[in-house]
Design brief:
Length: about 350
Amino acid sequence: MSALKNDLLLKALRGETVSRTPVWMMRQAGRYLPDYIKLRDKYSFFERCENPELATEITVMPVDQVGVDAAIIFSDILVVPQAMGMEVQLIEKVGPLLPQPVKGAEDLKRLCVPDVHERLHYVFDALKLTKQTLAGRVPLIGFAGAPWTLLCYMVQGKGSKTFDEAKGFCYQQPEVAHQLLQMITDTTIAYLKAQVAAGADTVQVFDSWGGLLSPQDFEVFSLRYIRQIVAAMKDVCPTIVFAKGAWFALEDMAATGAHGLGIDWCIKPELARQFAGSNITLQGNFDPAKLLSPVPEIEKAVKAMLKGFGRERYIANLGHGILPNIPVDHARAFVETVKAHG
Ligand code: CP3
């Protein structure tokens, strides 16, 4: 394996001094990129994920075209429920659909903790090919959904603003919920370890719906399982935890031993740092919709963000995934402003 020519991201995660702030964007592979949209006409979503050549091509696109300091493997968090035995469809312009959601103990019998090498080998093949193709240009990020966020989709069966059915399931059948969360956690630990064995330099856990829970319920239904994942990865690679909307848990998430914490745009950098403490790297937190502003406004807001977080233990990123309607030159302005900041 070739040594990395640009290891700014990994240095920042380890708390080492960097020559400049590293930058990447959540959901940078796909969506807003015209070359990706062309591929979408030819191949279904899961074809794009399951074909290592296509997944590699999409993963490398933002490195070539936008200049980010890291690649994130093209896949989806929902490949895990799929590998556990659920049917998952991705409907263009609508989102995920799981036609037979989990409603009770009976439904767990249809699910298993799979052999990830058997069910998710295509992700590892894509990581290996991407690693080769990148030839050390930038680090490669692996990822998985947090158990709570995956439970949301597995129980609700589709996207939702509130995921109230998933919450109701947890409050009405906590034992079944915990059984399911543990199955997801066991699968995820094996999955992330195998991603690192296949070439991922670091991994990010996406808890996109963590902020829907109260602080008490976040501890019980989410953080408990994230803690297990971070502990299992401790000697494997640096782990980044991103729980959107869960600013109230920054201190507890920092205490898991994660190397990085994703921050959304609903909290000031200074306050996020105060909650998280000085011993962890923060990543974020540009409002993705703010990339719709004119370029000079983007530059101004990015500089303010950089000033707010400071140079130490910081990775510039968005506060959530890039939106499909962002012009590529606006994404590039975001990245270039960070890179130009001395
Ligand atoms: O940089 C990347 O985008 C890498 C690959 C990636 C995808 N999904 C590809 C994808 C990553 C890291 C994800 C994570 C993901 N998937 C999350 C967590 C991050 C977040 O944004 O909150 C979640 C909640 C999902 C579930 C999911 N997958 C949804 C809700 C949707 C539909 C809406 C959307 O986000 O576009 C998907 C489909 C999906 N996953 C697309 C892509 C590029 C869009 C479908 C397409 O372009 O054909």
